[in-house]
Amino acid sequence: MNMGLRSESVATKPIDGQKPGTSGLRKKTTIFQQPHYTENFVQSTFAAIGDDLVGSTLVVGGDGRFFMKDAVAIIVKMAAANQVRKLIIGQNGLFSTPALSCVIKKRQATGGIILTASHNPGGADGDFGIKYNTANGGPAPEKITNQIYEHTKVISEYRMCQGAVVDIGEIGTTDFTVDGQPFSVEVVDPVADYVLLMKDIFDFAAIKEYLHGGVKVVINSMHGVMGVYAKEIFVNEFGLPEDSCVNCDPKDDFGGHHPDPNLTYAADLVDLLKKGIHGFGAAFDGDGDRNMVLGQNGFFVSPSDSVAVIAANADCIPYFKSTGVKGLARSMPTGASLDRVAAKKNIDCYEVPTGWKFFGNLMDAGKVSLCGEESYGTGSDHIREKDGCWAVLAWLSILASRKQSVEEVLMDHWATYGRNFFTRWDYEGVDAEKAKAMMAHLRTLIDSSQTKDFIGRSFAQEGKTYVISEADDFEYKDPIDESIAKNQGIRIIMKDGSRIVFRLSGTSSSGATVRMYIDNYIDDPSTFGQDAQAVLKPFARIALEISKLTEFTGRDAPTVIT
Ligand code: G1P
Ligand code: ZN
């Protein structure tokens, strides 16, 4: 027991630009390292928690990136000084985002603070991020993130207790008395509760049997936090050889790579799968909420298809067998494969803005069991974050039960539902003014749509003609709390249901990233086996023509294609 610690007030001034984006506050690490920067944001987060902060329990951890341990130490001192009752911290500060969400719920915590910039590069020159999650385990809704931001604009002091110091390398509880009040820090195994939850959801014995039946798998953790979870689940639980988990030692700079599981940044996994030795491969991002799934010979499962396949095969997963599938949801730019499953199975399907936080209310209200985003996010209502490991276990459950390869599962799926060919082109590091000008141009077209000169226009490329039937700037009214989210992306919808979407990223830490999404439904079976980029080329050209992207941004090619 550390008796008699005192807290103190530290004078500070508002710092510009502390507005949380799609998923918390993300900036260059050097910005978070500036005097008072992290402290101001943490104090503003505490202010937004309001009266619930006194006596609260908060879960804290992150993906192991550079500056994370410093941020944990700051949070310990500030929590101690702000009458938090207890912190639950993952050993060495580690928690995957889904595991942290799981622990908030399981331990009935007031909320949690996640230290990650997700898939953005880490290290001294990389990015850092802080995100607040509420008692349901999910990212704070905009109402709260706006309160945080408002507070950052008026902050004049924060509270610290310099004596509140713990060794986060050791599991166990440290008790303090701060300003006469009790304060405890419990350092926990970041993996244990999460693995128990997975065992409740999936049939581990069936997956284990499948994995020992001849198919070779490889799991790539991209030097993020998932390494510790992958080793526990795939090596210790399923008894696979150690080399089935690669890049599974968390590094504070992710080995100098982008910890983003896609065809560009996980190209080494794609190359490995192309050798044909493995029947299944998967990669996770830095904090473990994203996943990419590959089949033999590098067969790529688009994330928009992944959630649809899981929905179509939900009866392969014990959890859904008992809860049923209450409803489905996808983010607006995500390919509409899921809608086809919903229609055929007569299940409700919701379309929400980009960002996992919009699924939370629907899940809390029991309206949605399964949801996904095209950005490698897949998950269910077992927690309130997307969950890379859950998605991989869902896929393995499907493979084990259907006794088919990944490619066969997809070919069957398309034969039943038709195929939504989907791609996303990212233009990273665009001059922000130029990106805004392009979006303004698109908004002008949408305005003119009200005067009807945009609607009905037709575009032809390579013998295919598309006619615009609808266009808007996506607006969402949450069916539960009726909050409204405006300007969530320009949608141009064609008569055949094909869609073009443009939006600016809300997670990039500098400059602007333009995202162009293309979704084209085709039910001709002779195309199903074809490469999405080849099939979508004419439609993508039309999207570029309408947006004048090259004229506005000076870019003639995207930086990343998914
Ligand atoms: C991106 C993705 C979005 C995801 C978010 C957090 O946001 O597009 O789907 O929820 O990262 O992982 P964006 O940069 O597009 O705002
Ligand atoms: Zn992430």
**Architecture of the largest domain in CATH?**
3-Layer(aba) Sandwich
| Rg, nearest Å | 23 Å
The major pleated sheet works out as: 8 strands, mixed
Q: Tally the helices: what do you get?
A: 18
In this entry the ligands are: 1-O-phosphono-alpha-D-glucopyranose, zinc ion
Strand order of the largest sheet: 1-9-10-5-4-6-7-3
Shape: globular
CATH topology (fold) name of the largest domain: Alpha-D-Glucose-1,6-Bisphosphate, Chain A, domain 3
Tell me, rounded to a whole number, the average pLDDT: 95
| Proportion in β-strands | 25-35%
| Fourth-tier CATH superfamily name of the largest domain | Alpha-D-Glucose-1,6-Bisphosphate, subunit A, domain 3
Overall CATH class of the largest domain: Alpha Beta
For the structure shown, list the relevant keywords:
562 residues; alpha/beta; Alpha-D-Glucose-1,6-Bisphosphate, Chain A, domain 3; TATA-Binding Protein; 3 domains; 8-stranded mixed beta sheet; binds 1-O-phosphono-alpha-D-glucopyranose; binds zinc ion
